[in-house]
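Is this the right way to post structure tokens for a design question? Let me know if I should format differently. Anyway, here goes:
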């Protein structure tokens, strides 16, 4: 389609799309933009159901409209809607005031969130059910707003998948150097954005990880590529027997220091161990080239998927070489596991890694093989959440 005159192509297309008949065209909106007679308790207003069609296009339409849902969720987080609803039910007018929503759009926005099952509506009041609050109320221990925001910031990578599929190119191909140093660590601000994203992502599985290894039996571990240390701090806080080293590139050090100051006190912890601040340290280095800290356990979390197979092999071999006999290497990634619900997420994640770094996710079998090839004996894989698998390799004693 030609662009709208006077507008760049993308804006022109957006404007043209906006002129197409709207799904609510036949509904009547009141002055506030709230659709009159919005289905709520009254259901479908007696619409005759469509004849059942075993080849319904609905799944395709849902996929094509996935971006709309995603952006509505994103707006809810950015406008702090869920935070406000955590205080209790509220009317549309109250939410408009609290979140700065324009009344023209707020009705459809809030009702879409109800239809998406994220909110509930009782008469004129919107409320957040416990299933939503568990993950979107910032005060909840299961809050994942940071992880969702990070995923949503990745959308530009997906802006020309067709082009990527034709060219086979990754973002890294046009960067002057390392994917991290010439990517997110270019500026202090983007370094912070990346580190906060990683903070968010680890909240998706830090609880299960704390339960999935014999942490109480070891005294030291090193999180290789541990970013600014969110996970190391969490594990060390849960296990007073642990001393942790976060090993990462130099730009992360100030952000580690900042997090350590905010998260830890120097008080001895309950078990009488040393305070968190003295048990968790940062070691700046390059895990491909520099000596690795002496430790009983190395963690490679969301690291192998960043690199092509030769570099993955090098990292696993280096971990084996630096561990003492009886030491363990823990690896977690979004491994392909052959089940549709996991692979639906993880093939997309794999495509994402290919389009960024020319790397990929890998199957659980390949992960196990890689650890065994380096000399590890490998325990049964553990699911840390819907898409993340943990492998534990032990160096023979
Ligand atoms: C995808 S993030 C994973 C962060 C964290 N482990 C997690 O599970 O979310 C990859 C991390 O590897 C670090 N990294 C990349 N290249 C590195 C290198 N050569 N040496 C040490 N760390 C590196 C990055 O700075 C980043 O923190």
């Amino acid at each position: 389609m030609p662009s709208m005159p006077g507008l760049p192509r993308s804006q022109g297309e957006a404007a043209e799309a906006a002129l197409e008949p709207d799904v609510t065209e036949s509904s009547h909106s009141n002055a506030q933009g709230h659709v009159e007679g919005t289905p709520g308790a009254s259901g479908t207003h007696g619409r005759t159901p469509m004849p059942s069609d075993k080849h319904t296009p609905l799944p395709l339409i849902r996929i094509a409209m996935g971006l709309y849902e995603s952006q509505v969720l994103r707006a809810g987080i950015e406008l702090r809607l869920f935070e406000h609803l955590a205080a209790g039910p509220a009317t549309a007018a109250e939410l408009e005031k609290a979140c700065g929503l324009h009344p023209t759009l707020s009705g459809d926005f809030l009702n879409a969130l109800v239809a998406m099952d994220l909110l509930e509506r009782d008469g004129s009041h919107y409320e957040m059910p416990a299933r939503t609050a568990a993950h979107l109320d910032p005060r909840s221990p299961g809050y994942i707003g940071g992880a969702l925001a990070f995923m949503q910031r990745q959308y530009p990578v997906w802006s020309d998948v067709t082009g990527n599929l034709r060219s086979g190119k990754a973002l890294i191909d046009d960067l002057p150097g390392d994917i991290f140093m010439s990517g997110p660590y270019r500026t202090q601000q983007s370094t912070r954005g990346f580190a906060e994203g990683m903070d968010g992502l680890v909240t998706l599985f830090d609880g299960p990880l704390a339960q999935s290894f014999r942490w109480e039996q070891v005294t030291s571990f090193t999180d290789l590529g541990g970013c600014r240390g969110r996970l190391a701090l969490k594990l060390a806080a849960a296990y007073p027997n642990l001393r942790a080293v976060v090993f990462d590139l130099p730009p992360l050090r100030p952000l580690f220091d900042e997090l350590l100051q905010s998260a830890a006190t120097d008080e001895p912890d309950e078990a009488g161990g040393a305070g968190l601040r003295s048990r968790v340290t940062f070691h700046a280095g390059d895990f491909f080239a520099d000596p690795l800290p002496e430790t009983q356990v190395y963690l490679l979390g969301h690291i192998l998927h960043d690199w092509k197979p030769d570099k993955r092999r090098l990292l696993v071999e280096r971990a084996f070489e630096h561990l003492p006999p009886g030491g363990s290497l823990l690896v977690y990634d979004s491994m392909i596991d052959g089940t549709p619900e996991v692979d639906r997420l993880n093939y997309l994640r794999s495509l994402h890694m290919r389009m960024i770094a020319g790397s990929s996710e890998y199957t659980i079998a390949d992960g196990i093989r890689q650890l065994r090839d380096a000399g590890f004996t490998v325990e049964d894989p553990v699911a840390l959440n819907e898409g993340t698998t943990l492998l534990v390799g032990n160096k023979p004693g």
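Format looks fine. Someone answered above. Worth noting: The radius of gyration is 24 Å. DSSP finds 17 helices and eleven strands in the chain.
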